[in-house]
Amino acid sequence: MKKTVFFIFSVFLFARPNPFEPVMTPENIAKVKPSFFKKAVVYLPKDARVLKKIIFVYQNLNSDILKKEVVINKDIDFHSPIIITHKPKDFGFSRINLKYFVMYIKNKKVFIKTKDKLIRAFFLIKPFRLVLDFKRKSDFETVEKNLNFFIKKVVIGSHGSFYRAVLYLDANYKYKIKNLKEGIEIEFF
Predict the structure, then answer these.
(1) 86 and 37 in contact (C-beta within 8 Å)?
(2) In this structure, are residues 40 and 81 in contact, taking their beta carbons and an 8 Å threshold?
(3) What residues are paired with 74 via a beta bridge?
(4) What is the pLDDT of residues 143-152, one digit of tens each?
(5) Which of 42, 120, 134, 164 has the greatest number of beta carbons closer than 10 A?
(6) DSSP letters along 106-156, please?
(7) Cβ contact 150:156 at 8 Å
(8) CATH of region 93-188
(9) pLDDT one-digit tens code per residue, 74-129
(10) Domains of the chain: which residue ranges?
(11) 20: which DSSP letter?
(12) Contact 119, 133 (CB under 8 A)
């Protein structure tokens, strides 16, 4: 009996008030900015005469390791190096006026200038899109705007007590939303 009471007492002593609450909050996690690959110079052995293929091994957003093979099958001069360069795309700057807000896009950052409160945000696939719900009683026709960025299209529609903005993306991205005084900032990476 004493052992049972001691066991129950020790369980309550070391238990958290809410076991479903995460131990780490997102604020405690340090976010690392991506360090983009810039350039690699590769010298082939002196007996190399024909470059058959190049194999790229990469990691996707799900942390899966995948391969992509590029068949070349061309003669090469081993005296000259093979240079692989990578320059991240510069998407430039754009200002888009929409129903209840103005959206600014610069590279992979989006600023939505609005006084309306962001209720919820979630990401969907097929097609890839970020859904943003803003609080405001509204009744208007759905507005669609095609873009030429990593954001392909923006659709805004009324849902009675809130309106929804859907950002259609060209690929799967991780994102971070920051609430600001004038609106929200979304960083895609």
Answers:
(1) yes
(2) no
(3) 51
(4) 999 988 889 9
(5) 134
(6) ETTEEEEE-SSPEEEEEEETTTTEEEEEEEEEE----EEEE-SSSEEEEEE
(7) no
(8) 2.60.40.3500
(9) 999 989 999 999 988 777 788 988 878 899 998 889 999 999 999 999 999 999 99
(10) 39-85, 93-188
(11) T
(12) yes
Torsion-angle region of residue 13: left (phi > 0), alpha (psi -120 to 50) or beta? Answer: alpha
d(CA 151, CA 168): 6
* Residue whose tokens read 């690699």: 40
DSSP string, 26-93: GGGSPPPPP----EEEEPPPTT--EEEEEEEEEE-TT--EEEEEEEEEEE--TTSPEEEE-------E
Residue 73 and residue 53 in contact, taking contact as beta carbons nearer than 8 Å: yes
CA distance 182 to 186: 13
Pairing of the two strands 39-42 and 175-180: unpaired
| Spatial CB neighbours of 119, under 8 Å, sequence gap ≥ 6 | 133, 134, 135, 162
Under a CB-based contact definition with an 8 Å cutoff, are residues 100 and 136 in contact? Answer: yes
Q: 53: which 2 tokens?
A: 């293929």
The torsion angles phi and psi of 78, rounded to 5 degrees, stand at -65, -15
Whole-angstrom Cα distance, residue 119 to residue 109? 20
- Distance CA(119)–CA(112), nearest Å, equals 14
Amino acid at site 160:
G
